[in-house]
Design a protein that fits this description.
This protein is an alpha+beta fold and 698 residues long. Strands 18-17-20-21-24-19-25 form a seven-stranded mixed β-sheet, with helices on both faces. A four-stranded antiparallel β-sheet has the order 1-8-5-4. The chain has a four-stranded antiparallel β-sheet with strand order 9-16-13-12, with helices on one face. β6 and β7 (175-176) form a beta hairpin. The longest helix is centred in the C-terminal third of the chain and has 69 residues, at 618-686. The chain is elongated and about 160 Å long. The model is unreliable at 1-5, 122-126, 475-503, 505-509 and 681-698 (pLDDT under 50). It binds adenosine-5'-triphosphate (ATP). Residues 376-378, 417-423, 540, 561, 604-605, 608 line the site of adenosine-5'-triphosphate. Residues 376-378, 417-423, 540, 561, 604-605, 608 line the site of adenosine-5'-triphosphate (ATP). It is a single-pass membrane protein. It is found in: Mitochondrion inner membrane.
């Protein structure tokens, strides 16, 4: 803003007028000048010229005088301010003047085509944007008035002059260098202040779409705050949930389309199967209304999709950059809290699972429907103990701190595959309202370093799930035939009598994971430094685990999952056929079903496979179960037979190999004996008795 002040031009004019006044008052020079002029006038041409010059000078001086008096008069009776484009004060005034219909009678416009979501300017200049109508941009009329417009404001006359600079900002398309001059016809400077305050207030209250800001550093107002949310952090998910809930991002124009459900989706499509990923550097403006204060703040959101990881074919390293049109830090805090609450509400019926990529980053997030604890078919005390233990743990952080014990708890769920270990953890996460951070040690990309990084990147109060924890150890689950072979192998010697390595020497046992035991122990212990972690580990082979790993302090609770017993089978049957469960003969049917299955022989997952084939007909399920069991037994027997045959084949091959080796050894011995015999004969022939003894001995 700039207030009018006397210019150099006006100053010189004042000096000229003063000079003429002195001439007029001081007679001697005037007389001198007059006689000189009279002499000149005696020449007819010079006289005409001088008369003309004199007249012109007097007229120009008069004109300048009038102009100066006019300027002095206007400066005396008005206050003037100037506003320039790309400044918030310019935006306040233009929006306010537009609301006062100042440009109603404009006759000169610049017309540009803009979509409603383009967000290029803070004002529609009397014409609302209509972009959504037919997908084509709408015309926006901007007055380009050079002549002042006069209007009345709160009893004062105000003149507005708008100039356009004629060129647009290379990036935003905003007009650059344009000016707005406001002149208020009053002696009171206060009126200008009131006008600017009113304009600012109107702008803030009416929440008009603000102009875009690209480089925060180059924004002179210093009135903006920027926050960046990285994909590998939970706050990113909060922000994304909030942005999705506003639906404001649906108007974006740059998408990458994906059908992978694990991919980050940020805009709702008509079809859930198709996910709209942000195109690189997608930007939108969103109006945030604080649920606490009701305060409205514009956000400029730039979503960066990240980069495609060629190994996993997923986008990683994405970020959301939010610029708040406010420098008030509490607005940012409010926004983050609102985003977190939106995320939690959205996820209230779902469980969020974060998945690790092979670079040691939490790259993907999937949500699953919550699984109620009562859908788990487990001995009652298992469910209750687990839920009670975990709830108690989460509630006793203070106790842990006072006792100086790290606030973490380790659970090891072990047992046969398909018995419900993973299902239990998902149900528990839902019941406790925690998110799962899942890492499988069988993932070849996970090593000590990436595992440590993953653990340190998880937030407080979450479930850290390490599946297949036995993968970090060499498997002891070798085929018994291999042992037999090892035992039966006889040492073989080379020609010099040194033992040869067995031909079928077992390869060194390579663990199925890049994570080492010490790495795993370090990581588990480092979890202690993080607060409120529930560490769950699952394994099908507890016998392979090192005792250091499962000692209390690392694994505090160990629960064995067994193959289904009759009681579980009964429960399962009733759950599959809820209509039957309500009928009188439910128990009888369920019992008949369970009794047909030998207890502790099949996993729930296995029996579930059968029931799924009969899911609409409980009687048929009962009728067919005996045949199914018989078929499973037959398959098992066939498998056992195939294994036995394989074992027999191995034994036969081994016997053949042994025979072959024996034969080779015999031949070897015979060869050596033959050499010795030849040696002794030649020794005798040479007549050397000593050599003969040596020869035999050789
Ligand atoms: N005890 C159970 N209660 C309810 N459903 C179960 C139970 N056990 C297995 N299931 C069902 O069987 C399937 C596999 O279960 P889950 O993945 O939990 O087994 P798991 O023990 O973790 O297997 P693995 O050791 O192979 O990972 C799921 O569909 C689950 O619903």
């Amino acid at each position: 803003m700039w207030l009018a002040a006397p210019t150099m031009h006006e100053f010189l004019l004042t000096v000229l007028v003063a000079f003429l006044a002195v001439l007029f008052l001081w007679r001697a020079p005037v007389t001198l000048a007059t006689s000189a002029v009279q002499q000149l006038l005696t020449s007819p041409h010079a006289g005409d010229l001088l008369r003309f010059v004199f007249l012109g000078t007097v007229m120009e001086a008069g004109r300048q005088l009038v102009s100066m008096l006019q300027v002095s008069f206007t400066d005396f009776f008005r206050v003037q301010a100037e506003f320039t484009t790309l400044d918030f004060a310019y935006d306040w005034c233009t929006v306010y003047l537009d609301s006062q219909h100042v440009w109603h009678s404009s006759r000169a416009f610049k017309v540009i085509a803009r979509n409603a979501n383009a967000g290029l300017r803070p004002l529609p200049f009397g014409k609302p944007a209509l972009g959504e109508k037919d997908g084509h941009p709408d015309p926006i009329y901007e007055p380009t008035q050079m002549t002042p417009t006069l209007f009345r404001w709160r009893g004062y006359w105000i003149t507005v002059t708008k100039t356009t600079a004629g060129y647009a900002h290379y990036d935003t398309g905003e007009e650059v260098g344009g000016r707005l001059i406001i002149a208020i016809w009053s002696r009171k400077r206060q009126i200008l202040d009131d006008f600017v305050d009113a304009a600012r207030e109107f702008y803030v209250q009416s929440s008009v779409l603000p102009r875009r800001v690209n480089e925060l550093d180059k924004e002179p107002s210093g009135a903006l705050t920027r926050a960046t949310f990285n994909q590998s952090d939970s706050a990113f998910d909060w922000m994304l949930a909030y942005l999705r809930s506003t639906k404001a991002l649906a108007g974006a124009t740059h998408f990458t389309i994906s059908t992978k459900q694990s991919d980050l989706s940020w805009a709702e499509g008509p079809n859930d199967a198709v996910r709209y990923l942000p195109g690189s550097d997608t930007r939108q403006q969103v109006l945030f209304t604080s649920p606490n204060t009701g305060r409205k703040t514009w956000l400029q959101v730039v979503i960066n999709a990240g980069q495609l990881n060629w190994t996993t074919n997923n986008y990683v390293g994405g970020s959301i950059s939010v610029t708040l049109y406010s420098s008030d830090r509490t607005v940012l805090q409010d926004l983050i809290e609102t985003a977190r609450q939106t995320y939690l509400q959205h996820g209230a019926s779902r469980v969020t699972v974060h998945l690790a990529d092979n670079r040691g980053e939490w790259a993907k997030t999937v949500t699953k429907a919550r699984r109620p604890m009562n859908t788990l078919i487990l001995p009652a005390q298992v469910k209750e103990t687990l839920l009670q233990d975990a709830t108690d743990f989460l509630a006793s952080e203070e106790w842990y701190n006072n006792a100086g014990i790290p606030h973490r708890r380790g659970y090891l769920l072990y047992g046969e595959p398909g018995t419900g270990k993973s299902s239990t953890i998902h149900a528990l996460a839902g019941a406790l309202g925690l998110e799962i951070y899942f890492v499988s040690l069988a993932n070849p990309g996970v090593d000590d370093y990436s595992l440590a990084k993953l653990i340190s990147d998880t937030p407080a109060r979450c479930i850290m799930l390490i599946e297949d924890i036995d993968c970090a150890f060499p498997s002891r689950d070798k085929d018994e035939d291999d042992d037999e072979e090892d035992e039966m192998q006889q040492p073989v010697f080379d020609q010099s009598g040194r033992p040869l390595p067995p031909r079928n020497a077992p390869q060194p046992i390579i663990p199925r994971s890049s994570v080492t035991l010490s790495g795993l122990l370090n990581v588990l212990d480092s979890v202690s430094s993080e607060e409120g972690r529930l560490v769950f580990a699952t394994t099908n082979h507890i016998e392979n685990l090192d005792s250091a790993l499962i000692r209390p302090g690392r694994m505090d609770v160990k629960i064995q999952y067994r193959l289904a017993d009759s009681d579980q089978l009964c429960q399962m049957f009733k759950r599959f056929f809820p209509a039957v469960a309500a009928s009188l003969d439910a128990d009888a049917l369920a019992m008949a079903f369970a009794q047909a299955i030998p207890p502790h022989t099949y996993s729930i997952a296995h029996v579930q496979g059968y029931l799924l084939t009969q899911k609409r007909d409980p009687e048929a399920a009962v009728a067919g179960i005996a045949a199914w069991v018989a078929q499973q037994e037959a398959e098992k027997a066939a498998l056992a037979e195939a294994k036995a045959k394989k074992r027999e084949d191995r034994r036969r091959r081994r016997r053949e190999r042994e025979a072959q080796l024996e034969k080779e050894r015999d031949e070897e011995r015979a060869k050596r004996n033959g050499h010795a015999h030849e040696g002794s004969v030649s020794g005798e022939e040479e007549g050397s008795t000593g050599d003969a003894v040596n020869g035999v001995a050789v």
